[in-house]
């Protein structure tokens, strides 16, 4: 490739990394909250898809895409509440419940979302941060959706809150030792239900980004398993909200490789490059399974470390 083509690919990967990483970021932050309390929610794929459908439907009917974002968060909270309440019952496996809730959320979204596949809904407009440049590719790459910055603010707040607030201490203590939490008068069930609801809200907002920004439409193949991949991202980030940002950008860059190469006319191996995020997920899971650091950083009450 020529220097100009290399620059074009790098700029396209920059823009793609920011766009593709945003839903990963929200789902990963939501799962971080949930797992910090000692519970795994594999059903966030359902939150993501249902949030995307409801955000698109509300935006279509009201003309207010930000109202759709709130509705998507509400849908995620609803699924999170169901997951949290069911997992609070005796002898219930949170992983099995998560898989069931994923199927439930996706099924509801597909059933009620069929009328919205064709209509066009108002989208969330990006912020034109590249107006200073004469390069049209760079201007397009720097047209960043506000939800990306919201995700960064949420990550910083979570990182600070988990380390420096009483609520954060309670969540971490519940996730590390249920017996210690009970000894201090904390109700672990209540903490985990609320953490799962909060995580579901963030996953629903991530779904709103998919349907209202990038790719900016509603269809039944919208998510492509991003909710499940985000669980691997949390392990890779060692349950650290700030690392979730970097990990999400890494996943986003991997997902942008194929389109970036296609933008300069390189189509050979296109489908292989499109599979890069899934290959990266596989390697991360293998590496994390053998990593002592991941085991040490994991909350002690998670079923995957018992």
Q: Helix-strand pattern, N to C?
A: HHHHEHEHHHHHHHHH
Number of strands: 2
Averaged pLDDT: 88
Q: Which radius of gyration do the C-alpha atoms yield?
A: 19 Å
Total helical segments: 14
Question: In the CATH classification, which architecture applies?
Answer: Orthogonal Bundle
List the strand order in the largest sheet: 1-2
Describe the structure.
The chain has a single domain, classed as Orthogonal Bundle (ABC transporter involved in vitamin B12 uptake, BtuC), CATH 1.10.3470. The chain has 14 helices and two strands, in the order ααααβαβααααααααα. It has helices at residues 3-36, 44-62, 65-87, 94-113, 136-141, 146-164, 166-176, 178-183, 188-212, 226-236, 241-262, 270-274, 276-289, 292-297, and strands at 127-128, 143-144. It has a two-stranded antiparallel ribbon. Helix 1 (3-36) runs antiparallel to helix 9 (188-212), helix 1 packs across helix 10 (226-236) and helix 2 crosses helix 9. The protein is globular and about 65 Å long.
